[in-house]
Design brief:
It is built from 8 helices and 16 strands. Helix content is 19%, strand content 29%. The chain is globular. The protein folds into 2 domains: 236 residues, Probable tRNA modification gtpase trme, domain 1 (Gyrase A, domain 2, 2-Layer Sandwich); 73 residues, Beta Barrel (Elongation Factor Tu (Ef-tu), domain 3), CATH 2.40.30. By secondary structure, it is of the alpha+beta class. The strands form 3 sheets. It has a 6-stranded antiparallel β-sheet with strand order 12-13-14-11-16-15. The protein has a 5-stranded mixed β-sheet with strand order 8-9-7-1-10. The N and C termini lie far apart (70 Å). A hairpin with a 2-residue loop joins strand 12 and strand 13. The longest helix is centred in the middle third of the chain and has 11 residues. This is Folate-binding protein YgfZ. It comes from Corynebacterium lujinxingii.
């Protein structure tokens, strides 16, 4: 039998119906009024049950260097209280795991969708070799607080703060699983649907729903560290698997696809399904990801779309769609390597 949160016993709690590529099994999709729950997060702090996510704890003297050598985030000098994300890439730079990261009392906590817990644990365990690290699966439950930034929550094992998450402040906390009911009781509840609407607005992908086996980090701008923003990919850290692809795209060009937000035609008789083909003038130009109803904008989605089609009218199985311009990245790096190549091609006069 699969996981079922104790918060599913709360009045009005309803799970996401049917099968889905989203990691949503075992927690409430909403508590009776999902659009109101989303609006409420803009006015006061609400709690979202994300206790179905898997949490790993990596500890020991070598933990900072061990994780820094494997993952895309700079973690060798991460202090207590650090919070961000990190990717595990393959040798071609394609995304295998996308984990939230938090450091507390010298322990590195990694949280991932429930379907990735085992594979990430196995990967880390297989890479230990002679490192003095320990990899555990603590019985912790993740809650996400959306809305005005709360004070420290009593009993939180770790706290990770994300100042701007689709227009609201987000605070992820982990508590002992037996404390989830009591901890959540201090806040009004909102379902995973409200969280998902803000996630789509932020442009944060969920691995299985929004990415595919070819996805590289630069396809999702939310994943890239820029300025003071901490995503999942540090652009100046030391070597790790897949770094060559990251560096090449950052310095020489752009990804052929981009994860963008789509506005969907709300008058369509049926909502398109995650994983559907996106077409422009009858040509396949992308893949539909997370689909959700936003309280203000109606049906919206994330989608991987070819850059050449970003300005074109799109269609998904008969449903019209358009790229939300606000989801297009403003800063994709300076591409210093590309400028150097262009100068060499133009000849000596370009050096003047």
């Amino acid at each position: 039998m699969g996981y079922a949160s104790v918060l599913l016993a709360r009045p009005g709690a309803a799970e996401l119906p049917g099968e889905s590529l989203l990691d949503a099994t075992g927690v409430a999709w909403h508590y009776g009024d999902p659009l109101k729950e989303q609006h409420r997060a803009t006015e006061e702090t609400v709690a979202v049950d994300r206790s179905h996510r898997g949490i790993l704890a990596v500890s020991g003297p070598d933990a900072p260097a061990f994780l820094n050598n494997l993952l895309s985030q700079k973690l060798d000098d991460a202090p207590d209280g650090f919070g961000a994300a990190a990717l595990d890439l393959n040798t071609q730079g394609r995304i295998l795991h996308h984990a939230g990261v938090a450091v507390a009392d010298g322990v590195y906590y990694l949280d991932v969708p429930s379907y990735q817990t085992e594979s990430l644990r196995d990967f880390l365990q297989n890479m230990v070799f002679w490192s003095d690290v320990q990899i555990d699966t603590p019985d912790l439950a993740l809650l996400t607080l959306l809305g005005p930034a709360p004070a420290d929550v009593e009993g939180a094992v770790f706290t990770r703060r994300i100042p701007n998450f689709g227009g609201v402040h987000r605070t992820d906390i982990a508590v002992e699983r037996e404390r989830i009911d009591d901890t959540a009781s201090a806040f009004p509840l909102a379902g995973l649907m409200a969280f998902t609407a803000f996630r789509v607005a932020a442009g944060e992908p969920e691995q299985r729903a929004d990415l595919d086996e070819r996805s590289i980090p630069h396809e999702a701008p939310y994943l890239i560290n820029r300025g003071d923003y901490l995503g999942a990919v540090h652009l100046e850290k030391g070597c790790y698997r897949g770094q060559e692809t990251v560096a090449r795209v950052e310095n020489l060009g752009r990804s052929p696809r981009l994860l963008v937000k789509l506005q969907l035609d709300g008058s369509a008789p049926e909502e398109p399904a995650t994983g559907s083909e996106i077409t422009a003038a009858g040509r396949n130009v992308g893949r539909l990801g997370t689909v959700v109803h936003d309280a203000d904008e109606g049906p919206v989605a994330l989608a991987l779309v070819k850059r050449s089609a970003l300005g074109a009218p799109l269609e998904i199985g008969g449903t019209a769609a358009s790229v939300d311009p606000s989801s297009l990245p403003v800063d994709e790096g300076e591409h210093a390597g590309r400028r150097a190549v262009d100068k060499l091609r133009r000849g000596p006069e370009s050096q003047l």
